[in-house]
Amino acid sequence: MKDFDALKDLWQQSKPAEQKSVDLQAITRQSKDTKAKLMRPLLIGSITLFLTPFFVIWVVYFSKVQLNWISTHISVAIIALVVWLQSILTFFTWNKLRLIDDTAAPAQHLQQWETYYAFRKKQIQWNKPLYFLFLNLGMGLYFLEVVNGRPIGYVLTLVAFYAGWMLYAYFILGKRILEKEEKRLKGIMDELKGIEEQLKQE
Amino acid sequence: MKQEEQFTALYKQYAPGIRKLCLGYTGDAMLAEDLLQESFVKVWKNMDKFRGDAAWSTWIYRIAANTCLTHLRKKNEQFVDADEERLAMIPDDERNKEQEVQLLYKCISKLAETDRLIITLVLEDKSYEEIADITGITENNLRVKIHRIKKQLSEIYSSYERL
């Protein structure tokens, strides 16, 4: 059996890999940071969601489209509220990631990531269905005035197309994505737990 | 000293050691380079948080250790397998010193995640106190672990040498 000291000698004799010149711009700009990669879409998503209701309000109240029904006002209120709440939640998730301390001791650091992934796992279970439900409630109310007075064939086609797509998106596409995401998060959490175990007392 | 100058000095001083740590952890040069870079991005972003409670070395190694540990395992398994195949194809008589070092990296990457980091720090001649500070493991526990890992690594290396 090779003596450990011999391995240590071997390690220390090894030449350090070629040192490239230090280019601060290159180091900090190249997006090798996993946390930053996770944070970026959350921040962009949060800002986009925050701005979306303004666009909806402009379309309904300030563009040439004339919509006056009370159901339309309620629908705009529901859509704006749901999307703004989603924006706040996305921002909250972004902040949770931002607060993970990269300089903490490994056990603590792993625990913070585990807490984050556990939060994400719970979040996707209740947040996505609720968001979908209320957004479609808003859209349903909005369509009441939009389709009023249109030929029945047009109404039926629109309802069938919209409802069909939404049901497919929720029950088939959404469930598949949700299951995949849950499996991925569980995998990550199991892995983190495994590493955490390694740090414990022997 | 300006933050930029300080960062450059820290990078020059610690990047070679961190690169070896990452190489020991992943067993793959390209992946190690990515982890090195990710570690130093975090160093740059967190420099204002450094309070001097620990040495720069401990603080930077801890960031690198966290970066390695939270890196998803799936990716490096693919690389390790590919490199193993390449190593297996090299005849014994052609294995020079550098290849022995490469073999050592491969053997380290066979250990459990935290063991890889601990043993790399031991090989880098870090004191037990500093390794304990970096990993957050008590010195007593660390001694037990290091004893076991040394034995395990020697066995793995010997088994590869016999191939």
UniProtKB/TrEMBL annotation, chain A:
Transmembrane segments: 42-62, 74-94, 130-147, 153-173
Domain of life: Bacteria
Keywords, sorted A to Z: Membrane, Transmembrane, Transmembrane helix
Protein name: Uncharacterized protein
Species this protein is from: Lacibacter cauensis
Automatic annotation (TrEMBL), chain B:
InterPro entries reported in the protein's UniProt record: RNA_pol_sigma-70-like (IPR039425), RNA_pol_sigma-70_dom (IPR014284), RNA_pol_sigma70_ECF_CS (IPR000838), RNA_pol_sigma70_r2 (IPR007627), RNA_pol_sigma70_r4_t2 (IPR013249), RNA_pol_sigma_r2 (IPR013325), RNA_pol_sigma_r3/r4-like (IPR013324), WH-like_DNA-bd_sf (IPR036388)
Source organism superkingdom: Bacteria
A Pfam short name: Sigma70_r2
Keyword match Translocase: no
PROSITE patterns: SIGMA70_ECF
Ranges where the RNA polymerase sigma factor 70 region 4 type domain occurs: 103-153
GO molecular function, one term: DNA binding
Residue ranges occupied by any RNA polymerase sigma-70 region domain in the UniProt entry: 10-76
Entry keyword set: DNA-binding, Sigma factor, Transcription, Transcription regulation
GO biological process: DNA-templated transcription initiation
Family, similarity comment: Belongs to the sigma-70 factor family. ECF subfamily.
Protein name: RNA polymerase sigma factor
Gene source species: Lacibacter cauensis
